[in-house]
Inverse folding.
């Protein structure tokens, strides 16, 4: 979105823009279109204002991040000690964006070792962190992540879900996926929920179940 | 060292840390760790469907990748 404003000086034009649009100064970019030449001649200045629409109306203030409490700090120390005793050098960062959820981000040179096969080590660390915090504080979820592994895993699971859906649609059969934990299965179910001709069912017992992706044979339309 | 790792995790999770004991039996290709905790704490190191025990074993095997020696964790009751 762009607007044009004029003023006697550059500052005045920007001031007008701020008042008229009701935005903070850092919510838009300014381009000067016309400026009278010469240092002493003060002519009208025309500016063009660019508003970034992705930018939130009001800037996020500090009140949106929740305070990190003592049990959470102890939990980070617990994880730090575990990783240290594994013989791995790493730094941990804690982020709290929601009241009942904290994210621990690990940085290390030994990323592969800390993630493990299909995220097994990362999941184990996350489970231990959750067990630790549940002793101290109820209703708090801990997510442990390294180099956005969780985000990348989610993307690859979505891709897998869609690829499998295309396959069963083409062959008019069903296909059983590899064993997955509840969070991973949820991503598969959610990704395919909007496809009317595809059904997903979890099969098996225990924590790691398999998802079956099924083409609905009697689906019309 | 793996023994410290198990001991530390167990001591942090149980209610009676002074009753945590870890014995190490070194073999040629693998190391066996025997974890002993107070009877009322057994659930704290095993967890529902063995989830905690599994997590400890996973962390242990990641730690032992570098030594190349297999580590087996036994929880005694």
């Amino acid at each position: 979105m762009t607007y044009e404003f004029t003023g006697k000086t550059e500052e005045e034009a920007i001031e007008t823009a701020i008042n008229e649009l009701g935005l903070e100064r850092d919510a838009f970019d300014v381009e000067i279109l016309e400026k009278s030449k010469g240092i002493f001649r003060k002519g009208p200045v025309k500016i063009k204002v660019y508003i970034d629409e992705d930018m939130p109306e009001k800037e996020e203030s500090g009140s949106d991040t929740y305070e990190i409490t003592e049990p959470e700090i102890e939990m980070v120390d617990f994880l730090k000690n575990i990783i240290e005793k594994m013989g791995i050098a790493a730094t941990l960062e804690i982020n709290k964006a929601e009241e009942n959820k904290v994210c621990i981000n690990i940085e290390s040179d030994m990323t592969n070792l800390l993630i493990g096969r299909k995220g097994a080590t990362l999941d184990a660390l996350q489970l231990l962190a959750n067990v630790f915090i549940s002793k101290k504080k109820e209703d708090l979820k801990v997510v442990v992540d390294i180099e956005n592994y969780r985000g990348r895993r989610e993307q690859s699971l979505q891709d897998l879900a869609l690829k499998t859906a295309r396959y069963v649609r083409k062959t008019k059969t069903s296909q059983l996926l590899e064993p997955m934990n509840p969070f991973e299965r949820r991503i598969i179910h959610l990704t395919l929920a909007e496809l009317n001709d595809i059904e997903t069912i979890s099969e098996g017992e225990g924590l790691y179940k398999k998802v079956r992706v099924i083409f609905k044979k009697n689906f019309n339309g | 060292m793996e023994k410290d790792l198990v001991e530390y995790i167990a001591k942090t999770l149980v209610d009676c840390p002074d009753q945590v004991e870890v014995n190490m039996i070194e073999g040629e290709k693998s190391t066996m760790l025997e974890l002993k905790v107070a009877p009322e704490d057994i659930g704290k190191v095993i967890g529902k469907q063995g989830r905690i025990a599994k997590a400890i074993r996973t962390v242990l095997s990641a730690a032992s990748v570098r030594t190349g020696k297999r580590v087996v964790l036994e929880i005694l009751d």
The mean pLDDT of chain B is 93.
